[in-house]
Amino acid sequence: MVKKFQRKIEDFVCGHCGVKTKGNGYTNHCSNCLWSKHVDNYPGDRLNPCGGLMEPVNLELEKGTFHITHKCQTCGAKARCKSAPEDSVQALAELSEALAKKTFF
Ligand SMILES: [Zn+2]
Ligand SMILES: [Zn+2]
């Protein structure tokens, strides 16, 4: 049993909705509900020991790509990331609808 692959591709079970998301090395958020986990200081480094659940609190359309802002429920840190092609269109639509009704910040 030799580990051949060293790529940083991790499958993870979403701490919010429980759906298993297949990691592709770029995405660290759940494609079903868009929640993330606080594991990075900078995207992809996995150096933050917090591990808190990160709620999607903002959605911006930039150059045709959605950018999601996540806020950590444990330490309050915010991080912005690109949405992934496999993200649920319904979840993105629900988030933008919720944001239109609610005022953050
Ligand atoms: Zn989820
Ligand atoms: Zn945190």
Descriptive notes:
This protein has one domain (12-101). Helices cover 12% and strands 28% of the residues. It has one helix and six strands, in the order ββββββα. Bound molecules: zinc ion (ZN) (2 copies). The site of one zinc ion (ZN) has 8 residues, from loops.
Strand and helix map with partners:
Blueprint: E1 12-13, E2 20-21, E3 36-37, E4 53-62, E5 65-72, E6 78-82, H1 89-101
The chain binds zinc ion (ZN) (2 copies).
Poorly predicted regions are: none
Helical stretch count? 1
Structural class designation: alpha+beta
As a percent range, the share of helical residues equals 10-25%
Bound molecules: zinc ion
Give the rounded overall mean pLDDT.
Answer: 86
Portion in beta strands: 25-35%
Query: How many angstroms does the end-to-end distance come to?
Result: 51 Å
Biggest sheet character = 4 strands, antiparallel
Tell me how many strands there are. Answer: 6
Number of domains: 1
Shape summary = globular
CA gyration radius, whole angstroms? 14 Å
Assembly state: single chain
Question: How do the SSEs run, as a string of H and E?
Answer: EEEEEEH
Strand order of the largest sheet: 3-4-5-6
Quick structural overview:
With 105 residues, the protein is α+β, with helices and mostly antiparallel strands. The chain has one helix at residues 89-101; strands spanning 12-13, 20-21, 36-37, 53-62, 65-72, 78-82.
